[in-house]
Amino acid sequence: MQQTRFYPIGTPGTPWGEAERADWRARQVRQRSHADDVVARVDALRARFDVETYGTLSADGRTYPLLAIRSRDWNPDLPVGVVSGGVHGYETSGVVGAFEFVERSAEAYAGRINLLVVPCVSPWGYEHIQRWNFDAIDPNRSFRAGSPAQESAALVALLAPLRGQVLVHVDLHETTDTDESEFRPAKAARDGEAFEPGGIPDGFYLVDDSVQPQPAFQQAIIAAVEQVTHIAPADANGEMIGSPVVGHGVIEYPVEALGLCAGITGARYVTTTEVYPDSPRTSPEECNAAQVASVVAALDYALAHR
């Protein structure tokens, strides 16, 4: 398809070099505070949970602590549940939903599963409401050994000792209208490719692992979220974002091969949530509640089907 939209950085058909990346960075504006919204909220949980600083992100002359929340009285005989949010910093309900789960529901799992929650994987992206990191790299294609993304490399290192112990991993995301208006055109320009317009699913959906799919697990989450917000339908081709719909509200990716966050734990049960916050049929509160419902349903199913 002929390119229908010219992104204002670079030359169509030519991948970006450092000059174009610098131009892109110069256009990014800090719009919110990781210290106020994330660090302070983590600090408020220190009386109830263990908190670990698993790394420091350096970007644009700033440093950001990378923070993980752990169950108190961690028991090595129990399985592990991992919740990650804010891999894409602009996806707000992933961050807020992770916090709301910890604040309201996490302690109910004491003695049954060890929980490790990383509420904001990408602090610079959070502050700048960006999908990419400071180096114009998508962290959620970069979760592998030797990753060029600081955020991804740090999380891989944090979780590496737990590989083989993780029963369930829920990675909290959103699909927004800006995916189509900004982030996909930017990716096409960065990579020297033609931008091909697509669509945004209206509603919540999940991404399963195509290598080891768990359809009953995914449907248990869908059933819980359906009590909170609407589930995205397939398009006229039976797809969502170009992938076949394999079950109600579910598509599949080979998560580890693609370097996605959900692929780094080796868990039996993995899912990536996708909330649609721009729908006129939902609200920010409903989106946050959908993320919490996803985590609770995922943990409950995994513990019942160990």
Automatic annotation (TrEMBL):
**Protein species of origin:** Luteimonas terrae
Family label: Belongs to the peptidase M14 family.
Q: Which InterPro entries match?
A: DUF2817, Peptidase_M14
Q: Where is the Peptidase M14 domain?
A: 30-306
Pfam families registered for this protein in UniProt: DUF2817
Q: Any idea what this protein is called?
A: DUF2817 domain-containing protein
Tell me one GO molecular function of this protein: zinc ion binding
Q: Which GO terms describe its biological process?
A: proteolysis
Q: Which domain of life is it from?
A: Bacteria
